[in-house]
PAP-associated domain-containing protein (Pelagomonas calceolata), 368 residues
Amino acid sequence: THQPSAQQHGFAWRALDDACARVLPQLFPSENFFKRREEVRRRVEACLNNADVLGNGRRLVLRVFGSSANLFGAEGADLDMCVVPAASEEDTELSSPEVCRRVGEALESAGAKNVQVRDTARVPIVLFADPQTGLDCDVSTHNPLALRNTELLRAYAKIDGRVRGMAYVIKKWAKIRGINSPSDGTLSSYGYILCVLAFLQTVPNPPILPSLQRLDLDWPNPKNPDRPPPERVPHPFDASRDVCLSFHDPDKTGSLADLREIAGRNRQSLGELLALFFRHYAWDVDYRNLVVAPRTACVLPKANKAELDCWPQNPHLAIEDPFETHYDVAHVLKYPKHQLVRKEFMRASKLIDDAAAQRVDPDLVLDY
Ligand code: GTP
Ligand code: MG
C-alpha cells in the first residue's frame, strides 16, 4: 500500500497533538478526585474496624492502589483498596478468604450496594458500590504485589509528562474500542500501561524511560559500593517462589531531576509517540518470540524464560509482570478474543496512516 511521506506523517502527528491537547484536560482528574476518594477510604476503613473483621480487636488500615494512586486514574475509575493489618508484625490468624467474607458482611450491614464476595479468587476480593457517592469500589484482603506495582507505576509517571499523556489516551482508546475488560477476555488497564512503559523504554530514540528495576541494580552507591544484590522475599501467594520487590525510586534517591533531564533529550511529541506506539504494537513486535518486559527495558525471548510453560511460542501478546516474572499479565487474552487487541492496534495505525496520506484529521482514533 501507499506509504505516506515524512511531511504527511508530520501532518497526522500534529493533528494527533491537537486531539491530545483537546482531550487530556478532560481526562486528568481534579483536586477533588483525590479528596473524595480519601473520604470514601476513611469511611470504609472505619466500618471494617468497627465490625472487627480481623478479629480480637486487631486494627486494619485500608491502602489505596490501582489508578486512584498510580497517577493514571481518570474520573470514572473504580477505587481499589487493600486490607493491611495496622501492626505489621502482628499477622492476622484469619485466612484471606475468611477476612474477605467478613468484609462482605460488614459492608452489606453498612448499606453498601451490589456487594459481590469473590473469596475463591487468587486475590480474594469484595466488589461494591459506595452508598453515599455511588463510587465503584473493591477491597482485596492481601495484595502486597499490587501495592508495590502501584508505587512502581507512580514512579514512572513522575519522570516525564508524556508517560501520563500516553497512558491516559491509550486507556481511553481501549475503553472506547471495548478492549479493556479482562473478565471478557481483553486486556486490563494495568496491561496497557505496561505496554506504554515498555514502548517508552525501547522505541523512541533516545529512550524516554529507563528501567527503574535495572537502575536499582546499577545505581552507584558511594556509601556502600559492595551493596549486596536486592533482597528476594517469599511470594505472597505461592510458597514455591520468591520475588524481588526493589526498584530505583527517584523520589527517595533524589534522582528525579536527572531522570527528567535525560527524558527531555527526546523531543518527540505526544502525537508522534502515539502514532509510533500503534505502529509498533500493530506491526513491529515479534509476538511469537518475544515478551513485553518493562522490568528489563528490552524485549525478552519467550524461549529463554525459565518457566517455558507460562510463555508458549504462539502469536499472542505476552507481558511480563515487573515483579512476578513468571506471570503473563496478558494471559487473559483467550480464544476467540485473543486477536482483538492486535487488530485494534492495526486499525488505529492504519487510520493514522490514512489520515496522513489524505491530510484528514485522524479523529477516528481519538473520537471522543
Ligand atoms: P482503571 O481502574 O481502569 O482506571 O485502572 P487500574 O490501574 O486501577 O486497573 P485495575 O482496576 O484493572 O487494576 C487495579 C490494580 O490492580 C492495578 O493498577 C494493579 O496494581 C493491580 N493489577 C491489575 N491486574 C494485575 C495483574 O494481572 N497482576 C498484578 N500483579 N497486579 C494487577
Ligand atoms: Mg482500578
